[in-house]
Design brief:
Helix content: 25-40%
Strand order of the largest sheet: 2-7-6-4
Oligomer: single chain
Radius of gyration: 19 Å
Structural class: alpha/beta
Distance between the termini: 11 Å
Number of strands: 7
Bound molecules: 2-acetamido-2-deoxy-beta-D-glucopyranose, copper (II) ion
Order of helices and strands: HEHEEEHEEEH
Length: 166
């Protein structure tokens, strides 16, 4: 019984720590939320710009591209708006792909442009521009944050099951 109470206390402590760290290490945003990263629905080629406008991205946040639909997608960061508008990817750019998803930490201020370079996905609107502003601590969080700090929540649940088994 005593062990269990200590376990619960530890979990509480971890949750508080998570909340604090979240401010410090940034927020994970799943691009497109539940829709994920796919060619947008036919009648909404501006799907991802609408999505991006709902959030305020800060330096240190992570954009998670979760492959949905055909799942054959990439996330390639292109340097500027011209390349973004024309879906132009240079030979030096290595598009990210594989697994269920990839996460890209937004390390610098400014607009980060991502496209999918498979087929005509980008031309159909599978592209997103993320306006990243200075670090979270100074901001008044006026827009909602989807709160997933993946590594920490995995650690937390591993810890929780460990404690309850023992
Ligand atoms: C797209 O079309 C579907 C079906 O007609 C409709 O339900 C949906 O609201 C439309 N989406 C937009 C963004 O117009
Ligand atoms: C595409 O990008 C390459 C490399 O950055 C550049 O040399 C080329 O001019 C661009 N093409 C267009 C159409 O913007
Ligand atoms: C990015 O966001 C900042 C702060 O909200 C704003 O001042 C700036 O104009 C935005 N830049 C672009 C290219 O939208
Ligand atoms: Cu794609």
């Amino acid at each position: 019984m005593a062990n269990q109470r200590i376990g619960l206390g530890l979990i509480g402590l971890l949750m508080v720590t998570m909340t604090i760290l979240e401010g410090a290490i940034g927020v994970d945003y799943t691009v497109g939320d539940d829709y994920g990263w796919d060619v947008p629905p036919k009648n909404s080629s501006d799907f991802y710009s609408i999505w991006a406008n709902r959030y305020e991205f800060k330096v240190g946040d992570v954009a998670v591209f979760r492959w949905t639909g055909s799942r054959k997608h990439t996330a390639a960061e292109v340097p500027d708006k011209a390349d973004f508008d024309s879906c132009n990817i240079s030979a030096e750019t290595t598009p990210l792909a594989g697994g269920d998803a990839v996460g890209v930490r937004l390390n610098t201020e400014g607009v980060h442009y991502f496209i999918c370079n498979i087929g005509t996905h980008c031309e159909q609107g599978q592209k997103v521009a993320l306006n990243v502003t200075a670090d979270a601590s100074s901001s008044s969080a006026s827009k909602p944050h989807p709160t997933h700090v993946f590594a920490l929540s995995i650690a937390l649940s591993a810890m929780a099951s460990f404690l309850f088994v023992h």
